[in-house]
Amino acid sequence: MSANEIWATYEKRLLRVSAYIYEHLEEDLDLDRLSDIACLSAHHWHRVYRAVHNETLAATVRRLRLHRAAGDLVRSNTSVRDIAARWGYPNLQSFTRTFAAAYGMPPARYRKEGPHRAFEPENGKESPHMYDITIRTMSEQTLLGIPHAGSYMGIGKAFEALYGALFSRNIFRPDMRMVGVFLDDPDLVPEEKLRSFACVTASGDVPAEPPLVRRTLAGGDYAVLRHKGPYADMGAAYRWLYATWLPASGRSIRDEVMFEAYLNNPREVPPNELLTEIFLPLQPVG
């Protein structure tokens, strides 16, 4: 069997395991079961997974569950105890301790005082806080990606598949930047019908064989909002961009897709240190 055939086999196994993790996050995920899905011994599979993703399977599961828990805290009134139980923590104390270590504050406080609260109106008055906005003119950009359908909070599944394909095919390059392309408004489109793409920047000579697809970001002017903090908090940034910045900017929206550029990696930095740039396409001036 050639090296390409061997890594093609690993890619399929990575996809199976990644899909299983995302579809069963609310269940008891036994690491030996994941090894069975990969059709490799636990000893070898964990080494292959870590070599590709630079993270252990256990760390991936813990990070994703906390990400989903943060989303529940931001967007629902479900009790902290019930959220803890939903995401695999049998007691509130262990959930609180683990969440605080990752997000910098206990979950109940995060719900009341987290970054997503910083830009909300107070006493009927608009928040005085502002995000950092710059106007950039960019050239057309080629992307390589994998489509995702469903909640935008779950696009990590497509990124897992994307990086698994890039590494297994030996086409990953250190200068590739992570980009998320989002086609629908989650306030207007049902969650199960939301469309997005997990992408990396890539020159046109990088092969795009299925499930990889090629996309193009249009050149032109963009308002770029820099967001620091958990992905679960970014809804507030989008609302501020549209409701506060855009009407006062004197600029008009261009009919192109919005996208996000991820400046660091959630596997390598804590949630509060994540840096994301949101690109809003603008009509040219004049």
TrEMBL record:
InterPro entries: AraC_E-bd, GyrI-like, Homeodomain-like_sf, HTH_AraC, HTH_AraC-typ_CS, Reg_factor_effector_dom_sf, SmbC-like, Tscrpt_reg_AraC-type_HTH. Pfam families: GyrI-like (PF06445), HTH_18 (PF12833). Keywords: DNA-binding, Transcription, Transcription regulation. Signal peptide: none annotated. PROSITE patterns: HTH_ARAC_FAMILY_1 (PS00041), HTH_ARAC_FAMILY_2 (PS01124). Residues 15-113 form the HTH araC/xylS-type domain. The keyword Transcription regulation applies. This is Helix-turn-helix domain-containing protein. It comes from Shinella kummerowiae. The lineage of its organism: Bacteria, Pseudomonadati, Pseudomonadota, Alphaproteobacteria, Hyphomicrobiales.
